[in-house]
């Protein structure tokens, strides 16, 4: 039996949430041709922020890794809502991570691995992606991390 993104989610014990609605004048996803862009997702768990604050201050790297994982779970939920079947994902092309942090914080990449590792766990080799991770002074709702995604859909 061939492994699918849905079966991998089940193996990981992940049940996708109802996708969060946009909170301003934008849409959650835009598809153009075979590319699907997913707007930045916060680390929501059960409809609430999993963590708040900045890395290098109140938020540890370990907490941020888990927060990034929740961001990726929310991205995957948006993808499924947009295309119906996660098996249509041909490639996770790019993830972009925004890390709310103090000026001296430098472990951005380690925090973002929570999202990247889950992308590979769910989509296999198709989950290997290009990535940018940037430190910022603040994020909406005092979230410690926000992740956006770009997917190739077949």
Automatic annotation (TrEMBL):
Gene3D superfamilies the UniProt entry points to: RutC-like
InterPro entries noted in UniProt: Endoribo_LPSP/chorism_mut-like, RutC-like_sf
UniProt signal peptide: none
SUPFAM superfamilies per the UniProt record, alphabetical: YjgF-like (SSF55298)
Residue intervals of the Endoribonuclease L-PSP/chorismate mutase-like domain: 6-143
Matching PANTHER family: ENDORIBONUCLEASE L-PSP_CHORISMATE MUTASE-LIKE DOMAIN-CONTAINING PROTEIN, ENDORIBONUCLEASE-RELATED
Protein name as it appears in the record: Endoribonuclease L-PSP/chorismate mutase-like domain-containing protein
Species for this entry: Acetobacter pomorum
Source organism phylogeny: Bacteria, Pseudomonadati, Pseudomonadota, Alphaproteobacteria, Acetobacterales
């Amino acid at each position: 039996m061939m492994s699918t993104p849905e079966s991998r989610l089940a193996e990981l014990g992940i049940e996708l949430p109802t996708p969060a609605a946009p909170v301003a004048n934008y849409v959650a996803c835009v598809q153009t041709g075979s590319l699907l862009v997913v707007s930045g997702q916060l680390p929501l768990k059960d409809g609430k922020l999993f963590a708040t604050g900045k890395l290098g201050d109140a938020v540890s790297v370990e907490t941020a890794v888990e927060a990034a994982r929740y961001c990726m779970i929310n991205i995957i939920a948006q993808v499924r809502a947009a295309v119906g079947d996660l098996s249509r994902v041909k490639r996770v092309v790019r993830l972009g991570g925004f890390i709310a942090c103090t000026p001296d914080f430098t472990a951005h990449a380690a925090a973002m691995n929570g999202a990247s590792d889950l992308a590979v766990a769910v989509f296999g080799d198709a989950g290997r992606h290009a990535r940018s991770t940037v430190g910022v002074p603040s994020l909406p709702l005092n979230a410690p991390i926000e992740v956006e995604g770009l997917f190739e859909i077949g």
